[in-house]
Amino acid sequence: MKGPLFYAKILLFGEYGIIKDSKGLAIPFNAYRGALKTTEVLEGNSKTSNENLFKFYNYISALNSDLVSFNLKEFKTDLEKGMYFDSSIPQGYGVGSSGALVASIYDKYANNKITVLENLTRDKLLSLKEVFSLMESFFHGKSSGLDPLNSYLSLPILINSKENIEPAGIPSQKEGKGAVFLLDSEQIGETEPMVSIFMNKMKNEGFRKMLSEEFSASTDACIEDFLQGNVKSLFGNVKNLSKIVLKNFKPMIPDAFHKVWEKGIKTNDYYLKLCGSGGGGYILGFTEDFSKAQESLKDYKLELVYRF
């Protein structure tokens, strides 16, 4: 058995804001992917994956939900035959490793599943998101369901609010100097502790005001610019967003990168923002001149995501 491929995702804009119902934009990232496979000899990573899938099977078996049902008998039989999730998506890096796994399990075992080939109405998208939120909560304690949705559909998704999501057309890539890239912090980030820090900060009225006014406005402007292809304006708004994140989300930025973050804002060589919940994993970078950013960040591993 070899299942279809499901890709990683990158939340270009909207981290933390989407928890509080502001806009977000997520795109598939095809450099990393995963698929369900079966092996007769489980060892190392495949053994660990199979054990974790058994735990996930138990979780899904106990779900008492009208939203979705699964062919549990087939799921269990496949696990006993040595099924595992073979994935190149790094875990704890903010690019949706559990999302791709959830998408693959839904695709293979959900009864009456909503397929990618259907006319994806808003209601169908929201149903899928709800199902995926329920499934992915096994991994994070609380999940928006967006990562699996992105992986399942393999389409850019615009999040207008919790109740309003739609597939988005993004401008096709150009062979220009500008780029979106990933900067590897070489540290694992854990979602749950970061979200806890955020929720504690939300008890502070000043932080809530900053989030609903400055952060949301800046994020919305970036999304608008990106979708419209307004590159010049985009970089001004990304710089502003980078400053807001550095000032208000310091605990989510690994200590070793505070100065690197500041350097980008000062030199305009690049601007950094969180990729996912932060605390490690990847940091997302935007630059008007990728070769200049590479030179400026030559001590770090960079990966190209999108060209302007």
UniProtKB/TrEMBL annotation:
Keywords: Kinase, Transferase. It comes from the Bacteria. Coiled coil: none annotated. InterPro entries: GHMP_kinase_C_sf, Ribosomal_Su5_D2-typ_SF, Ribsml_uS5_D2-typ_fold_subgr. One of its GO terms (molecular function) is kinase activity. The keyword Repeat does not apply. The keyword Ribonucleoprotein does not apply. This is Mevalonate kinase.
